Sequence to fold (369 residues):
Amino acid sequence: MGKTKVLTIFGTRPEAIKMAPLIKEIQKNSGDFESIVCVTAQHREILDQVLELFDIKPDFDLNIMKNNQNLWSLTSDVLLKTKEVIEKVQPDVVLVHGDTTTSMAAALSAFYAKIPAGHVEAGLRTFDKYYPFPEEINRVFTDSLCTYHFAPTDKSCENLIKSQIPKEHIYKTGNTVIDALLYTVENHKEEVDGLEPDTNLKTILLTSHRRENFGEPIREICKAVLELVERNKNIRIVYPVHPNPNVRGPVYELLDKKERIHLIKPLEYAQFCTLMKQSHIILTDSGGVQEEAPSLGKPVLVLRDTTERPEAIEYGTVKLVGTDKNKIISAVQVLLDDDDEYKKMAESVNPYGDGLASKRIVEVLKKVK
Fold:
């Protein structure tokens, strides 16, 4: 029996981070698999940084990123261009990740070609189709299209069963983002350019870029940050600012050139891992950071009203605080003032994995090929 052709398709930086260790594991098992990598480049520059870090050279680069791209054009571009790749490669299985437009459209493309697809990070849900938008529908649709479902936690497995996915097609694997994080922290200790470590100040890392926080929510976040810095002379805020004008505009308007607030460019993944490790508290609306930071012993306050990652809340590593200024300030102040509360969050168990998710997925692919 010949090798199984595995076509991996992804397009954004978070997808690349989470798929990279899986691709490397597939490549290690070259006796069983032929690995073909396709990037849509839904993100361009920040995607390329991750590919370079993990030494992944795509076989196909669709380069679909355009200025002012909308969901209609993005979906059609991914669908039509992945059709060409699938027809050329004739894979045995297609792997997609998470909740992006790339993942959803690529899974649909595989479905149209009657080729089984595997969904890495399957089963995440908020059960509100407009929150987050469009990610919630992307992941629900992707789950419905795929044959193999690689779920990170018990909760995500339960969600798949509720969605009428056959149990025999659901595999609890842990999350590949932990594989990527542990590898990077161990092998790529890169300092952040222009940001000197300061042992006299506690670093609060802030990231906010999600669509649902555009407008007034991100302004509320910025106002909270201003007040926290004014109240606490022993902290500094470090904010890698996403280039999207909906983020960059209000952030620079409200926070630029403020004392102990450092607005920096988006970081390469290895630098971001270093910054997470050096931070005292993390404020974020990122799904990946909710999963990663607990492995580094960092309390995470989530700048959203709901999350498709409730496990970390149940385990105590993460708290939902939303985007109300006063709620953000109150939650951060508790962690700054109460050592017991801080320790409780920092020392909780990470429910998202042990760094072996990629190996588990490859073992499943060996059995079903």
About this structure: Residues 202-346 form a domain with the Rossmann fold fold (CATH 3.40.50.2000). The radius of gyration is 20 Å. The chain has 15 helices and 13 strands.
